Every structure is written in C-alpha cells, then in structure tokens.
Amino acid sequence: MSAHWLAPSILSADFARLGEEVDAVVAGGADLIHFDVMDNHYVPNLTIGPPVCAALHKRGVKVPIDVHLMVRPVDALVPEFARAGAGFITFHPEASEHVDRTIGLIREHGCRPGLALNPATPLDWLDYTLEKLDLVLVMSVNPGFGGQQFIPGALRKLEQVRRRIEASGRAVRLEVDGGVKVENIQTCARAGADTFVAGSAIFGSADYAATLRAMRAELAGA
Questions:
Q1: Which CATH number belongs to the domain containing residue 71 in this structure?
Q2: CA–CA distance from 206 to each of 30, 156, 167, 209, 216 (Å)?
Q3: Residue range(s) defining the domain that contains residue 141
C-alpha cells in the first residue's frame, strides 16, 4: 500500500451488483473498502450489517474492510463484524457508554480500532484514547447520508489531529470522510489526512479506475 490510502465507500455503490462493484474499485487501485453501517437510530438512515460484510469477505476481497459503525449501542456488533472479516472497526464516542472498553473490545477481537469525530465533536475524546487507536476518522459531513457537501471546518480539525498523532509518535492513520473528491483531496492531504473515503465521487463516475488514478495524481502533488 502507498502512504496515501484510498477507501471507496460502498454506500454509493450499486447494491444489486455489490460484489462486482467492489471487485472493480479494488482492481482500480483501492487500498481499503469503506463499509458504512447505519442503524436509523444513531444516524437517520439504515444500511447494511455483518452478513453483507461476511459475503464480501467470503468472496475474497483483496484489501482490508474498513467498517465504520454509525450505530448505538456499539459493543454487541463488534464481535459480529470481527467474525465477518472486518480489518478496521471505527465507532463514534457519543454512541458508546464506555469508549475505552469499546476500543479494547475491538482489539481483543483481532481488529484495528478507530474513533470517528463528527463535525461538532471536540478533540477532547482523543486525550485518553489516542495511544490505543490505529485510526482517527474526521467526518467532513454529518453522518447519515452519502453525497453531502464537504464541510470546510474539517480541514482545521485534520490539522489539529495530525499534530496530536505526530506528538504521540505512533503510526495512527488519519482518515477523512464526507464530500471528498478529485477537486479537494489534495487539500485534505495537505491538512494532514492520509486515508480518504470517497463514495459518490468514485461510484458516481463513469470510470472508477480513472477516478482513482486522478485522486492518486492529486495526492502525488500534496
């Protein structure tokens, strides 16, 4: 994998042919498959669960599955997604009763833990958790729907999280999710992101591989 990881979000894929859609973006250069789990409770939408993850894993997805849990409660789903083949499991601190315990649960089940920060979520959550995380996800939209516009304030948050990661001395990925596209991916990278979730920008394009190449070219200039 390169220093910059591209993570197509299957939320924007054609669910009727999901396996082929995932194969296409992996062949086109995706580093992760971003798997958006919404419960119509923590966020106002209902998407997919562990059986879909397990089906993709069984199909033989060649890159890690990056599971983003937008659910409340969190803990009961962690073992299920671990069994279903998740590589990363990221959750929102507001959705967990005991954030430290949830992070430990994810690692105990063999997955890499991540913490997701909504646009108005303060960075204080990282004060006592960053040393236990493998990924921090900065949301550049409010979670719940694909195809939203990028919130510019996320750039400042990315810069601040990057400084914290560097101060920690740990290899923590910094992911950005929401409204990421060819035109702004370089700006996100310059703000400190190294992992980029893109849904409609990729799956809404005519040529997935060409869009991924265009994103990679923009990142090369960051």
A1: 3.20.20.70
A2: 16, 32, 41, 9, 17
A3: 5-220
CA angle 51, 55, 56 (to 5 degrees): 120
For residues 29 and 146, give the distance between their C-alpha atoms in angstroms, rounded to a whole number.
21
36 is catalytic: yes
Residue of 31, 134, 177, 194 with catalytic role: 177
Total domains in the chain come to: 1
Residue 41's identity, in one-letter code, is: H
Please give the C-alpha separations between residue 153 and each of 6, 56, 72, 140, in angstroms, as whole numbers: 21, 34, 26, 8
Annotated catalytic residue within 31, 36, 134, 194: 36
What phi, psi does 136 have (nearest 5°)?
-120, 125
Count CB atoms within 10 A of the CB of residue 83. Answer: 14
Tell me the per-residue pLDDT of 12-60, one tens digit each, with 9 for 90 and over. Answer: 999 999 999 999 999 999 999 999 999 999 999 999 999 999 999 999 9
Let me know: does 21 contact 14? Beta carbons within 8 Å.
yes
pTM of the model: 0.97
| Active site (annotated) includes residue 194 | no
Residue position matching structure tokens 């920060």: 117
